[in-house]
Design goal:
10 helices; 227 residues; mainly alpha; disordered C terminus
Length: 227
Amino acid sequence: MAFKSFFKENRVLLILSLFVLANPELLKAANQEKECLKNIMPLEKQLLAVTEDGGVWAEFEGRPGLRKESATALKVDSKLEQLLNSLHYLCKAINGIPFSDLATYINGFLENKTEKEVRAEFNKHGKTKSEVDLWFKYTYFFNEHHNRKLDPASIQNTIELSKNYFDRYVTYTNKLKRMTSEASLQEANNLIVDVDSFLESDPNHSKAAFENAQVPYWDIDENYGGS
């Protein structure tokens, strides 16, 4: 009886697990994502060790000579969060652009209707041409690229290069109390510039930024879903 109850409550998960195990490519993809996420866990811990105490922002706020520059400190913290978020995306997207509820939604309509008919339907519900244009543009982008692959070895290299910035971040926060206000501000600005430069120059981070930039805001009334 206990087994029957467990199966009833978890049958969808069990069926999906069996499907993955029976499909070598899906199993390989799942393992690659899992290994990638495992490799960025130390960086998550480094960031959390600083931000759980308020981050660089809290250090600047606690010093009269730096309090007026707290916006810069906040930017340092956010840049490292941006870097980590980009790594998370790359791991999740290593075997294709992650699931998109918007693309799934639009594709569902296109199974039985033409694009012109779907556009007319959205128009009846008050959606503007410009926003619907963005929805279709993204859906076609997703359809074309959602099965693209990233090189796991290249992603691992990006993770290794990213580690330098998390190390610098931790080292910087550890020595902040011993630094002059001028030196603290200068190093904060240097870190911001360097992280920005890395995010733009690293091919994988720039790809993550490009793909995320394609996702439009969408909001449809409750009769038509939304996000």
